[in-house]
Amino acid sequence: MAEAKLSTTLGGVCKITVHHDLPPDVLAMVMLIEDKQFRKDQFYSLEELEERSREAGFICFLYSLDGKPLAYDLGYNDEEKDIFFSDSSATVIERKGVGAILSVLEILYCFENGYKAINIMCEEIDQSGRRLKEYWGKFGYRVTKIDEKAHFVDMRLDLTSELVKSLGKKYIG
Ligand SMILES: CC(C)(COP(=O)(O)OP(=O)(O)OC[C@H]1O[C@@H](n2cnc3c(N)ncnc32)[C@H](O)[C@@H]1OP(=O)(O)O)[C@@H](O)C(=O)NCCC(=O)NCCS
Question: Residue 127 has what pLDDT?
Protein backbone atom coordinates (compact mmCIF):
# COMPACT_ATOMS: atom_id res chain seq x y z
CA MET A 1 0.00 0.00 0.00
CA ALA A 2 2.85 2.36 0.81
CA GLU A 3 4.53 1.64 -2.54
CA ALA A 4 1.23 2.21 -4.40
CA LYS A 5 0.56 5.47 -2.55
CA LEU A 6 4.03 6.87 -3.21
CA SER A 7 4.04 5.69 -6.86
CA THR A 8 0.81 7.62 -7.44
CA THR A 9 1.92 10.74 -5.54
CA LEU A 10 5.38 10.89 -7.08
CA GLY A 11 4.42 9.72 -10.58
CA GLY A 12 6.90 6.84 -10.89
CA VAL A 13 7.51 3.32 -9.67
CA CYS A 14 8.30 3.28 -5.96
CA LYS A 15 9.83 0.14 -4.43
CA ILE A 16 10.51 -0.47 -0.75
CA THR A 17 13.00 -3.14 0.29
CA VAL A 18 13.81 -4.26 3.83
CA HIS A 19 17.33 -5.26 4.90
CA HIS A 20 18.84 -6.71 8.07
CA ASP A 21 22.39 -6.02 6.92
CA LEU A 22 24.00 -3.53 4.54
CA PRO A 23 25.36 -5.19 1.39
CA PRO A 24 27.46 -2.86 -0.85
CA ASP A 25 24.59 -1.91 -3.22
CA VAL A 26 22.28 -0.94 -0.32
CA LEU A 27 25.10 0.90 1.47
CA ALA A 28 25.85 2.89 -1.70
CA MET A 29 22.21 3.98 -2.03
CA VAL A 30 21.99 5.00 1.65
CA MET A 31 25.18 7.06 1.30
CA LEU A 32 23.88 8.82 -1.82
CA ILE A 33 20.75 9.91 0.06
CA GLU A 34 22.79 10.95 3.13
CA ASP A 35 25.11 12.97 0.91
CA LYS A 36 22.18 14.96 -0.50
CA GLN A 37 20.28 15.50 2.74
CA PHE A 38 22.70 15.80 5.65
CA ARG A 39 25.38 18.29 6.63
CA LYS A 40 28.87 16.84 6.62
CA ASP A 41 29.04 16.78 10.45
CA GLN A 42 25.89 14.61 10.56
CA PHE A 43 26.87 12.28 7.76
CA TYR A 44 27.66 8.67 8.75
CA SER A 45 30.84 7.33 7.20
CA LEU A 46 30.93 3.92 5.55
CA GLU A 47 32.54 2.49 8.70
CA GLU A 48 29.88 4.07 10.97
CA LEU A 49 27.06 2.64 8.85
CA GLU A 50 28.68 -0.80 8.79
CA GLU A 51 29.12 -0.62 12.57
CA ARG A 52 25.40 0.17 12.97
CA SER A 53 24.40 -2.68 10.66
CA ARG A 54 26.01 -5.10 13.14
CA GLU A 55 23.81 -3.89 16.03
CA ALA A 56 21.20 -6.35 17.34
CA GLY A 57 17.80 -5.81 15.74
CA PHE A 58 19.24 -3.79 12.85
CA ILE A 59 16.80 -2.93 10.07
CA CYS A 60 17.02 -0.65 7.05
CA PHE A 61 14.07 0.31 4.85
CA LEU A 62 15.30 1.48 1.45
CA TYR A 63 13.00 3.32 -0.94
CA SER A 64 13.67 3.79 -4.66
CA LEU A 65 11.81 5.73 -7.32
CA ASP A 66 12.25 4.42 -10.87
CA GLY A 67 15.31 2.55 -9.63
CA LYS A 68 16.98 5.65 -8.15
CA PRO A 69 17.58 6.16 -4.39
CA LEU A 70 14.63 7.98 -2.81
CA ALA A 71 14.74 7.48 0.96
CA TYR A 72 15.97 5.30 3.79
CA ASP A 73 15.22 4.70 7.43
CA LEU A 74 17.45 2.67 9.74
CA GLY A 75 17.60 1.68 13.38
CA TYR A 76 18.24 -1.13 15.86
CA ASN A 77 17.63 -2.24 19.44
CA ASP A 78 18.08 0.54 21.99
CA GLU A 79 20.17 -0.11 25.11
CA GLU A 80 16.82 -0.17 26.96
CA LYS A 81 15.06 -3.55 26.73
CA ASP A 82 12.20 -3.85 24.17
CA ILE A 83 12.85 -0.33 22.86
CA PHE A 84 13.89 0.44 19.27
CA PHE A 85 16.35 3.23 18.49
CA SER A 86 15.50 4.95 15.22
CA ASP A 87 18.92 6.24 14.25
CA SER A 88 18.63 7.89 10.86
CA SER A 89 16.15 8.61 8.09
CA ALA A 90 15.99 10.90 5.09
CA THR A 91 14.19 11.44 1.81
CA VAL A 92 15.51 13.30 -1.23
CA ILE A 93 11.95 14.41 -2.16
CA GLU A 94 10.52 16.43 0.72
CA ARG A 95 7.03 17.64 1.63
CA LYS A 96 5.25 15.03 -0.49
CA GLY A 97 4.48 12.48 2.20
CA VAL A 98 7.59 10.27 1.85
CA GLY A 99 8.87 11.06 5.36
CA ALA A 100 5.52 10.22 6.93
CA ILE A 101 5.45 6.83 5.21
CA LEU A 102 9.06 6.19 6.29
CA SER A 103 8.18 6.98 9.89
CA VAL A 104 4.85 5.16 9.96
CA LEU A 105 6.18 1.94 8.36
CA GLU A 106 8.90 1.90 11.00
CA ILE A 107 6.29 2.37 13.71
CA LEU A 108 4.20 -0.53 12.27
CA TYR A 109 7.29 -2.75 12.07
CA CYS A 110 8.26 -1.99 15.66
CA PHE A 111 4.76 -2.60 17.00
CA GLU A 112 4.40 -5.90 15.12
CA ASN A 113 7.79 -7.05 16.36
CA GLY A 114 7.01 -6.49 20.02
CA TYR A 115 8.87 -3.26 20.73
CA LYS A 116 7.17 -1.16 23.41
CA ALA A 117 8.49 2.23 22.28
CA ILE A 118 10.79 4.00 19.82
CA ASN A 119 13.52 6.43 20.85
CA ILE A 120 15.00 9.07 18.59
CA MET A 121 17.41 11.97 18.96
CA CYS A 122 17.14 15.01 16.71
CA GLU A 123 17.92 18.68 16.38
CA GLU A 124 14.94 20.88 17.26
CA ILE A 125 15.52 22.88 14.09
CA ASP A 126 18.27 21.98 11.65
CA GLN A 127 20.49 24.34 9.64
CA SER A 128 18.07 24.31 6.72
CA GLY A 129 15.21 25.38 8.99
CA ARG A 130 13.48 22.00 9.14
CA ARG A 131 11.44 21.89 12.35
CA LEU A 132 12.36 18.33 13.26
CA LYS A 133 10.91 18.28 16.78
CA GLU A 134 7.60 19.40 15.28
CA TYR A 135 7.90 16.82 12.48
CA TRP A 136 8.31 13.92 14.95
CA GLY A 137 5.61 15.40 17.16
CA LYS A 138 3.12 14.83 14.30
CA PHE A 139 3.40 11.08 14.94
CA GLY A 140 3.07 11.42 18.71
CA TYR A 141 6.75 11.50 19.76
CA ARG A 142 7.24 13.47 22.99
CA VAL A 143 10.39 15.12 24.29
CA THR A 144 12.16 13.19 27.08
CA LYS A 145 15.40 15.18 27.31
CA ILE A 146 16.66 18.53 26.07
CA ASP A 147 20.29 19.38 25.41
CA GLU A 148 19.86 23.15 25.14
CA LYS A 149 23.52 23.80 24.38
CA ALA A 150 23.56 21.51 21.36
CA HIS A 151 19.89 22.18 20.40
CA PHE A 152 19.25 18.43 20.43
CA VAL A 153 16.26 16.65 21.91
CA ASP A 154 15.62 13.02 22.82
CA MET A 155 12.08 11.94 21.92
CA ARG A 156 10.06 8.81 22.54
CA LEU A 157 6.96 7.23 21.07
CA ASP A 158 5.10 4.70 23.22
CA LEU A 159 3.50 2.12 20.94
CA THR A 160 -0.16 1.23 21.40
CA SER A 161 -2.48 -0.53 18.97
CA GLU A 162 -4.78 2.54 18.85
CA LEU A 163 -1.92 4.84 17.87
CA VAL A 164 -0.51 2.43 15.27
CA LYS A 165 -3.96 1.93 13.70
CA SER A 166 -4.69 5.64 13.49
CA LEU A 167 -1.26 6.48 12.01
CA GLY A 168 -1.56 3.66 9.46
CA LYS A 169 -5.01 4.86 8.45
CA LYS A 170 -3.99 8.52 8.22
CA TYR A 171 -0.69 8.18 6.37
CA ILE A 172 -0.89 4.92 4.42
CA GLY A 173 -4.60 4.25 3.99
C1 LIG B 1 12.50 15.20 8.03
C2 LIG B 1 12.06 14.58 6.71
C3 LIG B 1 12.32 13.05 6.77
C4 LIG B 1 10.56 14.85 6.51
O5 LIG B 1 10.14 14.20 5.32
P6 LIG B 1 9.01 14.80 4.36
O7 LIG B 1 8.80 13.81 3.26
O8 LIG B 1 9.33 16.18 3.94
O9 LIG B 1 7.74 14.83 5.33
P10 LIG B 1 6.21 14.67 4.88
O11 LIG B 1 5.98 15.39 3.60
O12 LIG B 1 5.86 13.23 4.90
O13 LIG B 1 5.45 15.41 6.06
C14 LIG B 1 4.81 14.72 7.16
C15 LIG B 1 4.26 15.76 8.10
O16 LIG B 1 5.36 16.49 8.69
C17 LIG B 1 5.28 17.87 8.36
N18 LIG B 1 6.62 18.34 8.04
C19 LIG B 1 7.40 17.91 7.03
N20 LIG B 1 8.55 18.57 7.02
C21 LIG B 1 8.47 19.44 8.07
C22 LIG B 1 9.36 20.45 8.57
N23 LIG B 1 10.54 20.68 7.95
N24 LIG B 1 8.98 21.14 9.63
C25 LIG B 1 7.79 20.93 10.24
N26 LIG B 1 6.88 20.01 9.79
C27 LIG B 1 7.24 19.28 8.72
C28 LIG B 1 4.35 17.94 7.15
O29 LIG B 1 3.72 19.19 7.07
C30 LIG B 1 3.40 16.81 7.40
O31 LIG B 1 2.42 17.24 8.34
P32 LIG B 1 0.88 16.72 8.27
O33 LIG B 1 0.89 15.27 8.62
O34 LIG B 1 0.17 17.54 9.29
O35 LIG B 1 0.43 16.96 6.86
C36 LIG B 1 12.81 15.22 5.50
O37 LIG B 1 12.66 16.63 5.59
C38 LIG B 1 14.28 14.89 5.42
O39 LIG B 1 14.69 13.88 4.84
N40 LIG B 1 15.13 15.79 5.99
C41 LIG B 1 16.59 15.63 5.90
C42 LIG B 1 17.10 14.54 6.80
C43 LIG B 1 16.57 14.67 8.22
O44 LIG B 1 16.52 15.75 8.79
N45 LIG B 1 16.16 13.52 8.77
C46 LIG B 1 15.60 13.44 10.12
C47 LIG B 1 16.70 13.25 11.07
S48 LIG B 1 16.13 13.32 12.76
Answer: 87
Q: How far is the CA of 123 from the centre of ligand 1 (A)?
A: 13
Angstrom distances, CA of residue 95 to CA of 51, 139, 163: 31, 15, 23
Q: Region 42-60: what's the mean pLDDT?
A: 95
Which atom of ligand 1 has the smallest separation from the CA of 37?
41
Given a cut of 90, whether residue 140 has pLDDT beyond it is: yes
| CB count in 10 Å sphere of residue 72 | 26
**What was the pLDDT predicted at 144?**
97
The CATH number for 145's domain is 3.40.630.30
Cα of 48 vs centre of ligand 1, distance in Å, is 24
Please tell me the pTM assigned to this model: 0.96
Number of domains comprising the chain: 1
Burial degree of 123 (CB within 10 A; 0-12, 13-18, 19+) = middle
Confidence of residue 22 (pLDDT cuts 50, 70, 90): very high
Q: Which domain holds residue 18?
A: 2-171
